[in-house]
Input
Amino acid sequence: MRRADDGDGAVRLASLAGHLPVSGPAVLLGHDLSAPDLERWTPWTARGRVAGGTLAVEEAPARTAGTAAQPGNG
Output
């Protein structure tokens, strides 16, 4: 997974099997954590729609565990 460079909240998705993800509604599960001790571990979700291998994020938490909640941060 990689954030798109256009700043609109889009996330590029990549399949480990080499296939494009199916288009439609999607939920992205992520974690923000502190390393190396894992003292802080905060799960988060982002919701949106997938089209052409990109998730257009429509709903995401504003912040988690004191860090900006951006898919790909954790």
Observations:
- The two ends are 11 Å apart (CA to CA).
- Confidence is low (pLDDT under 50) at residues 66-74.
- The CA atoms of residues 31 and 37 lie 14 Å apart.
